[in-house]
Structures are given as structure tokens and as C-alpha cells.
Design brief:
Number of helices: 14
Distance between the termini: 56 Å
Structural class: alpha/beta
Radius of gyration: 21 Å
Oligomer: single chain
CATH topology of the largest domain: Rossmann fold
CATH superfamily of the largest domain: NAD(P)-binding Rossmann-like Domain
CATH architecture of the largest domain: 3-Layer(aba) Sandwich
Order of helices and strands: EEHEHEHEHEHEHHEHEHEHEHHHH
Number of domains: 2
CATH class of the largest domain: Alpha Beta
């Protein structure tokens, strides 16, 4: 019999976790819209994705002591509120980083018409995802500009570029920052009207980070004025209700699934299960899937293209944008890009 003194809610769209904690706790599996103040009132733990906003409105009358999100980001969680109320927050940094990098390069191969080695790529945010994008880009012979002010201040060195340099010199600009609204390094509408006016090479713009890093009306205006080139949009402001105008303008348009690889989901699900097991001091449970290997150190154009075609997902979303959330929740998890075979050509 489960320990009825431990009560946990798990968002039901998280894969590979159903039944794992049931021998040790009373577990409810709920859709995001079912995770309400009433539902969480008497719980001890909460396992979620980005669709559950955890703040005072949800948690004010809750007994919740730990929130584990099976995602890289935590902008859907009011971490200040949680800290003030002694609620532990656990996320899964890097879990889907290889899948997002795969998405970036698979999309590029659909929207550029020269060898990648002829392009300069500007990477804004060089954390778990950005670091893989940078490594793969260098392996493919691209010139890489890295912009990450917090890392630059912490690590020093001369190898960093500022946003102005990227706006001036990059043929491709891809965003991989968290979404933050305050402070010196706030990223909300980081790519706004001023940024787009400063562009010099009509670059490809890729947003597979968070929708509100990019100011949607400003991007639409920049596209119409020819200030930007092809658009690759996976993360949208206002999800799941997205801008139909931006959808029409985007060359690659997907329903926030850049990180949706099977390996990424396995990693994330194991992280949140470990968090619950450790916090509640119950036996460790493991997802019923082999734990994935380390991400590829180098990739080839052929390997990436064979592993994923974003135009299929684009066609589906453009045909039924009102199904955004359903497409996301029932997405067929894909394999990650394979390791390059020794001595194979880069592109």
C-alpha cells in the first residue's frame, strides 16, 4: 500500500513516470488545467512542465514542499515566492539540450542555400544548449560569435561578443537564454525594435528558447521591412494562442517541441523522479527506459538531416494552429542527432 501521508501531483503529460512513485505515495496524474489551487491544497509535492504556473495564486493555501519541473527553464515558477515559503524547486538543466541543438541545425539546413561553413552564427546565451550549438557549429566549420554577459563577467577572457557585434556580423542569430524580466541581464524582449534596426546582414532568426525573448510585433515589422531573413520559431509569445501573422511569415514554425527528443524526456523524467525520491526519503525509482548516452560531440549535415525534418512539423502547425497544445502534448518523440563517424565530411 502507498504511504498515504505523502501526496504528490504529477502532470500527466510527463512521459515514463506513471506508476513509479505509486508504491510509496498517493499520486494523482492531472492535466495542466486541472492543477488548481483546490487540487494542490493538501499535497506535499508537485511534478510539472512549463504549462503549470507556480506562484502565489496557485500555492498560497497549499502544503506543497517541493516542485520538480521536467524542463530546463523555471520562468513558470515564482522562485522568490517559493524561497520565502520554503518550497524547494528542482529543474532539469541540460536535459534536452542536444535535441534543441538538433532542431537548430535541422532548421538551418532547410532555410539556407550554401554550405554552413560559409556562415557566421551568433549564439545569444551559451549555457547547456548554446554550448552544444557552438561546438557543433565549429565542427561544421562555421565562424561562431558567443554572447553571454553573465558568463563573460564570471569567466573573463577575450572570446566573447556583445549583442551589437552579433547584430552587425552574424548571418544567423539563435537565442538560448532563459526568460528574465528584471536585472542587468533581463532577456524579456531582448530582440526588440532597437535590436532589429541594428541588424546589418538580414540574418536568419531562430527562437527555440522562450517566446517573449523576442518582441513579436517588432519581429513581424522587421520581417516586412527586410531587416531579417528566414524565421525559425519554436517558442511563441502567448502560447498556446500564437500570432497567426508570425506563423505565416515563419519558414520553420513548430509548437514548442524543439527539445522533444526521447532521450531528452528520459533525462528530464529521471531528474524529477530522483528529486522526489531524495526529498521524501523513499527508494530510488528509475524510468522504464535505458538511460541515454552523452550527446554527440560532433555531427554531420547528413546525420542531422536524417534524424529530423522540421518542415513536417511546420506543415502540421500551419494547417492547424488552433491545435498548438494538442500537437505539443501528443508529439512523437524523435531520436537525437547521431555522433559523426570518424573521417566523415562535416557538410
Amino acid at each position: 500500500m502507498p504511504n498515504s501521508n505523502i501526496r504528490i501531483i504529477i502532470e500527466k503529460n510527463i512521459p515514463y513516470v506513471k506508476g513509479l512513485l505509486d508504491p510509496y505515495a498517493t499520486v494523482s496524474y492531472l492535466a495542466p488545467e486541472e492543477i488548481t489551487p483546490k487540487a494542490v491544497r493538501d499535497i506535499d509535492g508537485l511534478v510539472i512542465r512549463t504549462r503549470t504556473k507556480c506562484d502565489a495564486a496557485l500555492l498560497a493555501k497549499s502544503d506543497c514542499k517541493i516542485i520538480a519541473t521536467a524542463t530546463i527553464g523555471t520562468d513558470h515558477i515564482d522562485k522568490d515566492y517559493c524561497e520565502r515559503n520554503s518550497i524547494i524547486v528542482v529543474n532539469a538543466p541540460g536535459c534536452n539540450a542536444p535535441a534543441v541543438a538538433q532542431y537548430v541545425f535541422a532548421s538551418l539546413m532547410q532555410v539556407v542555400n550554401r554550405r554552413l561553413s560559409q556562415y557566421t552564427i551568433g549564439i545569444v546565451g551559451v549555457g547547456h544548449v548554446g554550448s552544444i550549438v557552438s561546438r557543433w557549429a565549429k565542427g561544421l566549420g562555421m565562424r561562431v560569435l558567443e554572447c553571454d554577459p553573465p558568463r563573460q563577467r564570471a569567466e573573463g577572457g577575450d572570446g566573447w561578443s556583445d549583442l551589437a557585434t552579433i547584430a552587425r556580423e552574424a548571418d544567423i542569430i539563435t537565442f538560448h537564454t532563459p526568460l528574465t524580466r528584471e536585472g542587468e541581464d533581463a532577456t524579456y524582449h531582448l530582440a526588440g525594435e532597437e535590436f532589429f534596426r541594428s541588424l546589418r546582414r538580414a540574418p536568419v532568426i531562430i527562437n527555440s528558447a522562450r517566446g517573449s525573448i523576442v518582441d513579436t510585433p517588432a519581429l513581424i515589422d522587421a520581417k516586412k521591412k527586410g531587416l531579417v531573413g528566414p524565421l525559425v520559431i519554436d517558442c511563441w509569445e502567448g502560447e498556446p494562442t500564437i500570432s497567426r501573422e508570425l506563423l505565416e511569415l515563419a519558414d520553420v514554425a513548430t509548437p514548442h517541441i524543439a527539445g522533444y527528443s526521447q532521450n531528452g524526456k528520459i533525462r528530464a523524467s529521471q531528474v524529477v523522479m530522483d528529486a522526489m525520491s531524495t526529498f521524501f526519503m523513499i527508494p530510488r525509482v528509475t524510468v522504464d527506459m535505458p538511460l541515454p548516452p552523452a550527446p554527440a560531440r560532433k555531427v554531420t549535415v547528413a546525420g542531422v538531416m536524417e534524424s529530423y525534418d522540421p518542415l513536417t512539423d511546420t506543415k502540421t502547425l500551419k494547417a492547424s494552429p488552433e491545435d498548438f497544445e494538442n500537437l505539443r502534448n501528443h508529439y512523437s518523440l524523435r531520436p537525437e542527432a547521431p555522433e559523426a563517424v570518424a573521417n566523415s565530411l562535416a557538410d
